[in-house]
Every structure is written in structure tokens, then in C-alpha cells.
Amino acid sequence: GVGFCWAEGPRGCEGVEARVRVLIAGDLPASAVRETARQPVVGRITFHAGAPGSDIVLSVTSAHHLVVHATLGGRPISEWPAAIAQHLIPRVMGRALAHEIGHYLLGTRDHASRGLMAASFMPDDVTLGSATRFSLPRSEAARMRLECIASAIEARAQR
């Protein structure tokens, strides 16, 4: 329910504009990982006074960990040629980025029981699972559309 325009520098996008900064690192900074995390944390958005900030960090190491623990044809990905794992790492990172952008757009650290905003994902889901598993619930998507339309109308009125 949300379209994106990937822009660098001063160039903008049409529609409602929001800017986030994405850092891709080997590992997340220690301050970004809770000690209670049971699975590798691929992405994290900063929060300030309960509101999401605009800085997102993604971990290539954690994405790789999830990929090699997924299965394909009943065998761990780690038993397949390395090119398969390398192909899946960007997918895992993209899904993690979509989740973190979801926190930003929804304005909350809350998680859902399933879908894009679930608190965690199993290796098989995040690597080879259907893209439909990574969507917002209809109610949230509808709310986002209404907020975007209202913001666009407000921006036009100020011109």
C-alpha cells in the first residue's frame, strides 16, 4: 500500500516525501541489539522518545546467518553452492528494510502477530517465503494510504 522512490542527494520524489538514512554494516552496533534477541537481528531503526527516528542499520552478517539456516529441497542452504546464499542475502536485507520502514511510516515500535510487522521471521520464510508474507494488514495499508493522501493535499494547499 506504499510506493517508494529511492533518491540520493537533494533530488526529491513526487508525492509525500520522507527521508531515512540506511547504513549497511557487517554487524549491528551493540547499542542496536537487545540482549534478549533469540535470532540474529538483521535490521534496527532508532527510536527517540518513543518515536521512530530516520536512521536504519542493516546487518549483512545476520542476513547471511538466516540464509544459511534456511532450507531448500530439504537441505540447508549451506549445503548448496555459495552463489545461492549470495543471491538470497539481498532479499533478506530488503525484507528487513521494509520492516524497519514500516516502523517509520506507522510511527510505532509495535509488532504484529504476522505479516511485514511481525517481531521475527523464520529463516525459511524470510529467504524463500512468498512476498505476500511481507505485507501490511489491510487496515494498516488503508490507514497509510489515507495519511499519504491527506499529506499530499496539505502540501499542495501550501504551494
Structure keywords:
159 residues, alpha+beta, three-stranded mixed sheet, two-stranded antiparallel sheet, 38% helix, 15% strand, elongated
Unreliable sequence segments: none
> Number of helix segments?
4
Along the chain, the helix and strand elements come as EEEHEEHHH
Count all strands and give the number: 5
> What is the mean pLDDT?
85
Structural class: alpha+beta
Main pleated sheet = 3 strands, mixed
User: Which range does the strand content fall in?
Assistant: 15-25%
Helical content band: 25-40%
Distance between the termini: 26 Å
Shape: elongated
Rounded to an integer in angstroms, the radius of gyration calculated over CA atoms is 17 Å
Strands ordered across the widest β-sheet = 1-3-2
What does this molecule look like?
This protein has about 160 residues and is of the alpha+beta class. The chain is about 40% helix and about 15% strand. It contains 4 helices and 5 strands. The strands form 2 sheets. A 3-stranded mixed sheet has the order 1-3-2. α1 crosses α2. The mean pLDDT is about 85.
